[in-house]
Amino acid sequence: MRAMQDAEQIVADYLAELLTPVAAAAPAPAADVQVVAIEPWKAAPLGEPIAAGDTRYLLCVAAGVRLAVPMADVTHLLPMPPLSPPNSSNPICLGRWRHPSGEARVADLAAVLSPDMAGAPVSTLVILRDRVWALACVVDDEPVDLLPEAIQWRIGATTRPWLAGMSLEPKCGVVGTTALVQWLEKELGP
Fold first, then answer.
1. The pTM is what?
2. Are 35 and 78 in contact (CB under 8 A)?
3. Which helix (H) or strand (E) holds 163?
4. Is-cis flag, bond preceding 170, omega within 30?
5. Diameter of the chain by CA atoms?
6. CB neighbours of residue 110 within 10 Å
7. DSSP helix/strand/coil, 137
8. What would the pLDDT profile of 138-154 be if each residue is shown by its tens digit?
């Protein structure tokens, strides 16, 4: 009988401990979404080439392929927001994103590489130059410096004219933003 009373006492003590209010720690504040504004595009209109001294590139990943986008052409980076439905059935166009100064058409960078790769997971919206076009991709790294001498440039390419070259370290394709915007407008219309 004594063992039964001890077991009941142990259960009662356990329940009392569970039901005793404990001072809760204050919940951690929600992480603020930080929009990074980079506006070098103001100095270089869309049709002009990137300055020879600008060697910083943003490394973007789309469907497992790493591409370097010139930081001179990147206006904003932000977590992937909800988009308005696209006006096109083309898998390259994910939709439109409204921002305070207008609207940007969002291209799936994986589908730009190949329509078969459309729908790859994305986490970042990369707003380009004048905020008319944006790329949906994954951005995990800080911008890197790529020296022009370390890039194998493509001259007169007929396929993927927006692929300006290849870098061996880090191994990635180098995007020509002006050619990419022209290609997107040709593919999807202005």
1. 0.70
2. yes
3. strand 163-168
4. yes
5. 94
6. 26
7. strand
8. 998 889 999 999 999 99
